[in-house]
Amino acid sequence: xxxxxxxFTGMGVAAPNGLGADHWWAxxxxxxxxxxxxxxxxxxxxxxxxxxxxxxFVAGDHxxxxxxxxxxxxxxxxxxxxxxxxxxxxxxxxxxPAFDMGVVTASSSGGxxxxxxxxxxxxxxxxxxxxxxxxxxxFYAVNSGQIxxxxxxKGPAGVVVSDQAGGLDALAQARRLIRRGTALIVAGxxxxxxCPWGWVAQQTSGRLSTSEExxxxxxxxxxxxCGYVPGEGGALLIxxxxxxxxxxxxxxxxxxxxxxxxxxxxxxxxxxxxxxRAAQVALDDAGVTAGEVDAVFADAAASADLDEVEAEAxxxxxxxxxxPVTAPKTMTGRLYSGAAPLDVAGALLxxxxxxxxxxxxTRARPAYRLDLVARQPRPAAVRTxxxxxRGHGGFNSAAVIRAAGQEDAARP
Amino acid sequence: MAAEVFTLADLTRIVLEAAGxxxxxxxxxxKVLDTEFEALGYESLALLExxxxxxxxxxxxxxxxxxxxxxTPRALIETVNAHLSAAAxxx
Lengths: 412, 91
Fold this sequence. Notes:
The complex is a heterodimer of chains A (412) and B (91).
Chain A: E1 6-15, E2 18-19, H1 21-29, E3 35-37, E4 50-52, H2 59-62, H3 73-89, E5 101-106, H4 112-124, H5 134-137, H6 142-151, E6 157-160, H7 166-179, E7 184-191, H8 196-203, E8 233-241, H9 242-247, E9 254-263, H10 275-286, E10 295-297, H11 304-318, E11 324-326, H12 339-353, E12 355-356, E13 371-372, E14 378-379, E15 384-391, E16 395-402
Parallel strand pairs in A: 5-6, 5-7, 10-11, 10-15, 11-13
Antiparallel strand pairs in A: 1-2, 1-8, 1-9, 3-4, 7-8, 9-16, 12-14, 15-16
Chain B: H1 8-19, H2 37-40, H3 44-58, H4 64-68, H5 73-90
């Protein structure tokens, strides 16, 4: 362990079951799902018809008109969420040195809806009709770029692309940058590609649910697991060095105490999947034992093979029924890069409220021997949370989130 | 054939569609004509996008490099009108 501890001091959320952290957290603890039939386009010709769509986001209410012609929906939501996170942290970026602030986001699709519209113009009307802003609006890195420009943040910036695992990888990269001396990083992810082009791309994984029943379509760990429902949204978090946060008297939600990332072996090699090792690395990095973990936010793939891998990893680390496990993403669908930052926001609020949010609609298979927090939120002493995230193609990431006030306890 | 005339009102409509406007610019004030695009907050991509829309609507072809260096709205309006006059002469 080296360098400064990285703490979370602000959050901004755009989720299918709530816009803004307060609305989303109330819905999450109340078991309110945001999954329903796609309305952004007609899904009747596609195998999958359900999604988690962020309700009521009107970009013009949150952003200046200059930004609208040059931004995809995911960027607009990311900019708004970053604004909310900064406000939540009590940060006025204009009052801070520009080079002390950076941005790290994750992305799995880039600006698909924007890109689809411009490619449609390209082939139907010709190159001269393509927006000049296509030059960057669909890039993976565009959310980091736009957040840094809007807020005058000239410190290190970047993007990581590793599907759902990327949401944790971005927070880990932010911690690295803080350890190297940047005082504040806006970190996290918002993904959105609920447009026909994005939808077709998502179908290719073969892991999407084709159920049309919102309460039965996404059932991780259930005997009826039949794939996942995709969603849009995510969270941006303000991460600071513990020292900087303390100096300005900031409210601290918690610390990114540990992180681990692994790749699964190539199919057919006969070696075991690497999720468990990612979690063990994260626990070791945080200097905590499995017994000190109060809750696990699961990746919750909802395919029998992947659920089994995750249940085995949790069982191996914690023992049968050894730790409360939850998957609030059953209320949002899987948000790709946005999922894990949202889970981290949930972990931080679980620590604040001493309440583990529930998993809805699903009943864990007894064979998995999981203590699933189902239907109702569970009051509990929550100080340390493990968040798991897997990305398509073998990415495994794990993060340990710990209550504030212990940042220096584990430093050697 | 008389040349079509490109006015500040035309430019205003197209810029707002192409790159937005908002609080910092008053396109209704003629002072805007001689204010530099950079001071108005329109960077080179905004000018390229604006130019592309003018080209499509008026059937003319502007030089991309000249566009991104265009100093003021007045300069852009004069350039467009010069193209329109030239086009009218060749009809």
